Amino acid sequence: MDWVNISFWFFSIVAGISAASVISVRNPVYAVLCLILTFFSVACVWLLVGAEFLGVTLVLVYVGAVMVLFLFVVMMLDIDTSDLREGWVRYLPLGLVVAVVMLVQMLILIGVKARSAAPFPVDNAAAIAADTSNITWLARSLFTEYLLPFEFAAVILTVAVVAAVMLTLRRRPGLKKQDPTEQTMVKAKDRLRMVKMTAEKPVVQVDVKNSGGEEAKP
């Protein structure tokens, strides 16, 4: 029995089902949990074929940034977060399912790696052919042969960040805001105003007590 192919198909099916659930469920919390499972399943596939750096990077970067993505969704859709906090118990079953599936995937991955004494047929094939490490080969290929697609991906991600900020920037009445253009165009005479006032001598009234106990006012 080829455990490598079975594990690959298992990880791929879980990733496909969870990815479809991300765009099909209506609850944003469920979508985030399914997205975590999708990223983790894809990372298991990469670890299975020998791309350890890509798998670990996917877990650390994307799974770690899921909560930031969730915050963007909340800001763009104006979701009432108080309702989400009050009913957090109903999200527990799906969270447990996702955690159990991730644990099973880790155990399967560890078991397959332990059973295979020899490297997989696709395990670091390009790096072994180049007689270098996996990370060195990946960096060399990414910034030489695939430099143009890498730059395109960076531009697309930058445009996506700007678009997300513009979607969340809404003009609400009664909201205090700053205008950097007006702040930089202001002049010194607009910030400082000299006021000329006539000086008046204040009148001070002093009560003086004489020796007889009577009060006298000068």
TrEMBL record:
It is a multi-pass membrane protein. It comes from the Bacteria. It is an enzyme of class 7 (translocase). It is found in: Cell membrane. The chain crosses the membrane at residues 6-23, 30-49, 55-79, 91-112, 146-169. InterPro entries: NADH_UbQ/plastoQ_OxRdtase_su6, Nuo/plastoQ_OxRdtase_6_NuoJ. It catalyses: a quinone + NADH + 5 H(+)(in) = a quinol + NAD(+) + 4 H(+)(out). Composed of 13 different subunits. Subunits NuoA, H, J, K, L, M, N constitute the membrane sector of the complex. The keyword Oxidoreductase does not apply. It comes from Stenotrophomonas pictorum JCM 9942. Belongs to the complex I subunit 6 family. One of its GO terms (molecular function) is quinone binding. GO terms for cellular component: plasma membrane. This is NADH-quinone oxidoreductase subunit J.
